[in-house]
Amino acid sequence: MTDNLPLIPAHTIGSHAWPAWLYSALDAMQRGEYGPKDWQETQEDAVDLALRDQEDAGIDIVTDGEMRRIGFFTAGFYGHLTGLRELAPQRKMGVIGHDQRESYEAIDRVGAPGGLGLVEEYHYVRARTARPIKMPIAGPYTLAGRIKPGSIYRDRMDVSYAMADIINAEMKALVAAGADFIQVDEPSYAVHASSPAEFVKLFNHTVAGVNAKISVHLCFGNFVGRSVAKRTYRPLFPHILDMHVSQYALEFANRELFELDLWKEFGSEKELAAGLVDVKNYYCETAEDVAERLRFALKFVPAEKLSITPDCGLSQTARWAARAKLKAMVEGAKIVRKELTG
């Protein structure tokens, strides 16, 4: 389904902005006012909304908006795992931050006897759109970051390899269901950039035997629209170019296009999904803003190897802004595509 795309296709990273009613529905569900079928219907309506917003904007490769996941981690992944004990947040008051989020301790070998739920996500979104679909999945090192090893595992990397086997099985199940484009989200690689060679080894273990187009998304965090790292990819280069992937999805817009030159410096022949729309800023780009950024990116990446995305997912962005940014992204790509092809 990812064949026959236009030059410089537009796609999203994964998550879409929530409508107000989905927050209200989640509150009602947590109060016990929704039955499981009520919640299923709500989530399906939310996926339909995310698809409509993407298709209205003209997005070439869509996702289900991760509308079933209640956040990047929570019910989307950890809720499917066994062998974990949930821990109390380290901080419950004050300005929201990562130390207020959920965390876990391994009390047994981690497992996912029913899978991670992505096959069900794929079947639904495939039935609701004719467009090419990208399926995002959280990577093992990032997921392991909220799991204390306890007495079961040696360290975070040991937990990561346990998660890698679970994720590998889920990706193979997705391929068997018909998915042909999978994005592995590993923001923690860029956050903890001191061991890039070990990350590459872990990543290649994670995707071994998965017969699909694989992309990896490396960013600096986006919880409540904030980064959590020194925002540079340089420590990861050239190591990450040994990942068994077809495409790298990297953020540039919120860093004023800093480090796009790395792509030319290290001479990669793989695809770059360049984040050229800033999801952490409520300035809504114009189509010409986007076109200008694309023209700059083309100094370092051949057009046939380039696609355009927002910097990160849109879950931390108000829906009105998300819709405006997606439309500008698509219109900006059309301007440059016309310049290149006449």
Topology:
Blueprint: H1 20-30, H2 36-57, H3 74-77, E1 82-87, E2 103-111, H4 118-128, E3 135-138, H5 140-144, E4 147-148, H6 156-177, E5 181-185, H7 187-191, H8 196-206, E6 213-218, E7 247-251, H9 262-265, E8 271-277, H10 287-297, E9 306-310, H11 319-341
Parallel strand pairs: 2-4, 3-5, 5-6, 6-7, 7-8, 8-9
Antiparallel strand pairs: 1-2
Helix pairs in contact: 1-2, 2-11, 4-6, 6-8, 10-11
Q: What does it look like?
A:
This protein has 342 residues and is an alpha/beta fold. It has a single domain (20-341), classed as TIM Barrel. 38% of the residues lie in helices and 14% in strands. The protein contains eleven helices and nine strands. It has helices at residues 20-30, 36-57, 74-77, 118-128, 140-144, 156-177, 187-191, 196-206, 262-265, 287-297, 319-341, and strands spanning 82-87, 103-111, 135-138, 147-148, 181-185, 213-218, 247-251, 271-277, 306-310. The strands form two sheets. The protein has a six-stranded parallel β-sheet. A three-stranded mixed β-sheet has the order 1-2-4. Helix 9 links the parallel strand 7 (247-251) and strand 8. Helix 2 (36-57) packs parallel to helix 11 and helix 10 (287-297) packs across helix 11 (319-341). The protein is globular.
The biggest beta sheet is recorded as:
6 strands, parallel
Structural domain count: 1
By CATH, the topology is TIM Barrel
Strand order of the largest sheet: 3-5-6-7-8-9
CATH class membership: Alpha Beta
Range of helix content: 25-40%
Going by CATH, the architecture would be Alpha-Beta Barrel
Mean pLDDT comes to 94
| Record field, number of beta strands | 9
Structural category is alpha/beta
Distance between the first and last residues' Cα? 26 Å
Report the portion of residues in β strands: 5-15%
Instruction: Sum up the overall morphology in one term.
Output: globular
Low-confidence stretches: none
What integer value in Å does the Rg equal?
Answer: 19 Å
Give me the oligomer status: single chain
SS summary, helix count = 11
- What order do the SSEs take from the amino end to the carboxyl end, as H and E? HHHEEHEHEHEHHEEHEHEH
